[in-house]
Amino acid sequence: MNNFSEVNLKKGCFDTPIVKERGQREVFCGLTSIIWLHRKIQDAFFLVVGSRTCAHLLQSAAGVMIFAEPRFGTAILEEKDLAGLADAHDELDREVEKLLSRRPDINQLFLVGSCPSEVIKLDLSRAAERLTKVYAPKVRVLNFTGSGIETTFTQGEDTCIASMVPILEKSDKRQLIIVGALPDVVEDQFLKILHGIGIKNISTLPSKNKSENPTIGENTSFVLAQPFLNETYEELIKAGAKCIHAPFPFGEEGTTKWLLEITKEFNLNENKTLEITSSARTRARDSIKKVSEKLKDKKVFFFPDSQLEIPLARFLVNECGMKALEIGSPYINKKILGPDLNLIPNGPVISEGQDVDLQIERCLSSSPDITVCGLGLANPFESKGLTTKWAIELIFSPIHGYEQAADLASLFSRPVKRKEILNL
Ligand code: SF4
User: What are residue 29's DSSP bridge partners?
Assistant: First the structure.
């Protein structure tokens, strides 16, 4: 960690001992991330090498498919593949050939591993290398895993982006990369502010198309926009880039601090950043205040799910006046989450991993006003009278930046309000 001082590290929850649990866990697998990644990377196709269960998960997570040519699909491993009776590599090659001859719009093909492909040890990196040679330079073939054995639902995005880093072209250009898939509207807002404060070369990873992919080198600084990008972080450091450590851009506080850390890294004028963002900051503060009235002094309990838990808890505590009882996260990498942990006042239990029965007991005995958890836990909790928020909704909604700060607060205040009305 190199961007925040020793003194700061001692404040807040940074040094709070982490309760580590390794037991039964309740989360979706990394295939889920294809739902938002295929919208973001517009010349890509995600070919899941998996079972009918994987195909069903994707279909139901994506809702009803109203477009004729979706950009994801499943190459189904049949029983004979799983029993080792057929050469799965030959079959995969045939599927890819059919797909690419039918779809000239595909420039990037991701082979996505699943539980079944992991179990039969199908080497998708070898397949990706072989197929890249066949289809280069038009199509680039990459692979990553979304298997539920290895990944939780946001980790699919991490393994996907990490797979793209080693093949980025090298360059010495002084530049910034914003890392993590953001909704276009949020990305455009950030780019406008960052150009306004004087940063010239900015790219995003993932980019919309192969031709817009960033270059990378020792003069590259990157800032994460999503807190679950652990593997991507390591790959970017390995490629020589420097990380700008900052709280994540949720709420007015997080967004301002995120922008100020970038400003510092590029030796630009912090006052100018504050000036440019002045009206957006005021707007965000005022609108959060209005929306978060119902949240003041309410207690929140986070189950580990999206890996957004720590920055979101910081937002709810510092900007909405809530009290965090427990902040659970599937993984806690202090190199990435340190600045947010620093800003959360001491008090909550910080837990990593899950032993779901123990955590349910802790939750029920602490009587939270709102519990943030996965779909599997939400319904049973509601039937016990708890108010819940589905963690997955936080991934599908635009919640970063100033203009979305009030929407973020209202994602939490709406269920609290609804509960109050029902109790009248
Ligand atoms: Fe289920 Fe594994 Fe397929 Fe995910 S990857 S849908 S957990 S079988």
Answer: none
Phi/psi at 97 (5° precision): -60, -45
**pLDDT of 117 strictly over 80:** yes
Nearest to 122 by CA among 89, 168, 149: 89
Question: Which ligand 1 atom is at minimum distance from the Cα of 57?
Answer: 6
Q: What is the 3-state secondary structure (H, E, C) of 348-394?
A: CEEEEEECHHHHHHHHHHHCCCEEEECHHHHHHHHHCCCCEEEHHHH
CB 329 less than 6 A from any atom of ligand 1: no
**From the CB of 29, is ligand 1 less than 6 Å away?**
yes
**Could you identify the atom of ligand 1 that is nearest to the CA of residue 53?**
6
Position in ligand 1 atom list of the atom nearest CA 29: 4
Q: State whether the beta carbon of 113 lies less than 6 angstroms from ligand 1.
A: no
Q: Give the separation between CA 155 and CA 181, rounded to whole angstroms.
A: 12
DSSP 176-189: EEEES---HHHHHH
pLDDT at 375: 84
Q: Measured between alpha carbons, how far is 97 from 419 in angstroms, rounded to an integer? A: 54
Closest Cα partner for 338 from 16, 105, 66?
A: 16
Share of the chain above pLDDT 90, in %: 80
Q: Is the CB of 159 under 6 A from ligand 1?
A: no
Mean pLDDT of 264-277: 98
Mean pLDDT of 277-306: 97
The rounded Å distance from CA 387 to ligand 1 centre is 29
